[in-house]
Amino acid sequence: MTLIFNSGTEKKPETSTTPATTTMTPQVTTPKIPSLCDGSMDAASLFRDELFIFKGRFMWRLRDRNERVPGYPVDFHIFFTGIPRSIQSIDAVYQRPFDYNILFFTGNQYWIFDGNRFSNDSPRPLTDLGLPSDLDKLDAAFVWAKNGRTYFFRKDQYWRYDDRNRKMENGYPQRITRWRGLVPDIDTAFTWRDSKTYFFKDHYFWQFNNQNVTIENNYPQNIASYWFGCNQ
Question: Using one digit for the tens of pLDDT, what is the confidence trace for 193-203?
Answer without folding.
Answer: 988 999 999 99
